[in-house]
Amino acid sequence: VQLVESGGGSVQAGGSLRLSCAVSSYTYSRSCMGWFRQAPGKEREGVAAISFAGARTDYADSVKGRFTISRDNAKNSLYLEMNSLKPDDTAMYYCAAAPFYTLNPRDYNYWGQGTQVTVS
What is the Cα gyration radius of the chain? Predict the structure, then answer.
């Protein structure tokens, strides 16, 4: 099982980033996918989740209207488009897979290593 994030970096407030997550096909084909983030000294929080077919999505209130989660099932890939970034969005971002639709990080059983997003 492998999940590999990319696309993090440093950006000024108001800027945009697009995160990607490449997922091994076995895991991807059976999973709800989600993005999570963890800032220093804080608990890991759910950012967004998407069902396998992409028909259902959910977002944390703090990112609604600014972030968009999507997936390309032909490429076994997950994405997070982040716009109007704020300093409070600074965190390590993780993609993860769960066997059912949820935004609770405790229900996700496969995780990537994370990609850092810094907003100044």
Answer: 13
